[in-house]
Amino acid sequence: MVFTPDQPLQRRLLALLDDNLKEDEVTATGLATLLSAPVSEVEAELRALARFGNLTRRTGMNGEARYSASPRRKLLGDMLVEAGHMTNTQLQEALAEQARTAERLGAILLDRGYVSKQILGKMLELQRGIPYVNLSTRGIDEHLVRSLPERVIMEHKVVPIARIEGEIHLAMLDPSDIMAIDIVRKYLGGRVRVFLITEGDFGWAVTKFFDVTRKVGESLLEVAVEDDEGEQAENAAVAVADTYDASPVVRVVNTIIRDAVRIGATDIHIEPEAEQTRVRVRIDGLLLDKAVLPRAVAEGVTSRLKVLAGMDIAERIRPQDGRILVNIESREYDLRIATVGTAFGERVALRLLSNRQVLVGLERLGLFPEQQEPLQSLLSRQHGMILVTGPTGSGKTTTLYASISHINDRVRNIMTIEDPIEYRLPGITQIPVREKSGITFGVGLRALLRQDPDVVMVGEIRDPETASIAVHAALTGHLVLTTLHTNNAAGALVRLLDMGVEPYLLTSSVLAVVGQRLIRVLCTACKGQYEARDTDLRILGLPIDTPLKLSAGSGCAECANLCYKGRTGAFELMVMTDPVRELVLSRKPAGAISEAAIADGMQTLRGAIIRKVLDGVTSIEELQRVMMVEVS
Ligand SMILES: [Zn+2]
User: Fold this and answer.
1) 397-417 pLDDT tens trace
2) Ligand 1 center to residue 431 CA distance, Å?
3) 90 by DSSP, 3-state: which?
4) How far away, in angstroms, is 556 Cα from ligand 1 center?
5) Torsions phi, psi of 244, nearest 5?
6) Structure pTM?
7) Confidence of residue 56 (pLDDT cuts 50, 70, 90)
8) Measured in angstroms, how far is the CA atom of residue 201 from the centroid of ligand 1?
9) Beta bridge partners of 339
10) Ligand 1 centroid vs 120 CA: distance in angstroms?
11) 521 CA to middle of ligand 1, Å?
12) Is the pLDDT of residue 6 over 50?
């Protein structure tokens, strides 16, 4: 039996129905023409959908069945808005993202943190008339989960949770997936009773039952049995996503990558130590231990990665870099891999870039409305420079991409020079820095300016040459967006002066400087409130005895006991106002420039994070942690 990752006809049919079934009735014949599919197959799908309450079926005048949307099947988004669980603006944003990515609305809403999975589940239950089950709080029969092949679980997004009186209770993301029900019935036997789950639940179950540590452990047992597998793995070049039938080393590699993707890691580190090799992943900016590999296996894993990245396997000392394109659960990832020889062997760092992250809109970065509005209006200018600044890992690039996407109206020529290109943006010319071929930021930027651009993004200003060209570009009719590595907004202006930019050129080119940090967001599932302590009030700069509730996480299954889930930005926006301009012209220090901007109403970075602490978005500990990270 061939397992296709999705069922083309059913998917296409559902998409079509969503578009066309708002008011009118449809027939199998009509839809079959639209889909160029056999009428009998379309009819079978429609019947199945009717059986699951998605459609109402009635016999028409000529005896042909006519289908219409069930009156109780209201649109999910509208239901959530009507019930007051989210705003209409949020729904519109999510629908716009859905139009771009064709992902499920539920997944987008959870991703954006607009609704909790409990609320989403309850709404789906109301909409579909199928009971919702919260997997993370309900016991799951692990033996039953393991009796179903992993690929069935992954491809159909189903989790068998219990067998009760001969009936299989099956949790499904998509209860209208008839094929999945058939397959589960075939494997497990018995009648199937369907329950609804959300993407959040499915992700939770997969992490619990197919966790990297366990899988690596299982695969390692096989490595021990089949000694020569490592060699084989070096020569095999199968797709990374194809985990199921590969050799143990290949499976270890795939498991590590898939697991990292699933939990939303940004980097994977494979670090040799004296006796063993440690695998760590970076999530929300912090490293987390994931697995420990025996030396021999680690070497196999490293070789495998190098083969996939087209690197020289024999070279184990000189640093190398390469990239691997992988497709995981139908999303494309670009893995940047870099190796370096250490005292204990080769160390590997993998950076995970997905096209998905590009699509973070300006409105999702974490800007306060009074920061977002002026920034948007500055982005619509024809010329001038907007700088984004902060330490490494503070989300500067994400802000640049969001800004570029915001102004990408296809009537302006937008060009970038980047090192490296982290995300590919449609409709925009991106040039990578290639130091080896002599394409530095300066050289690339000069070449790019001869291509008649309207908007120019410079990945980073690191040297006086780039600074000077960028400033001149901004003065000669280009909108220039770029980043600098400084602590705060005022620091960026001083840094540019230090790079030899004349003060009067700086004040006439720079429109604004954005300073930013990324902060971890408290897990909504285990977040609770407590009475602020004296130390908290001191940190917040409030008088002792101020009655105040603050939020903190207690750790739960949703956040893997980390108390945080996801990150958001905190910003300061320094606009080139007259007071700021005067201080820059007289070359005053960063502190004085900041003070003038604050006096003029600028929200500081620290102030922005404090506001997020008071709003319960993050904790006081996170404020402390983030504000300690300073650019040296
Ligand atoms: Zn939690």
Assistant:
1) 889 989 998 888 778 899 999
2) 41
3) helix
4) 4
5) -75, -40
6) 0.62
7) confident
8) 13
9) 320, 348
10) 17
11) 11
12) no
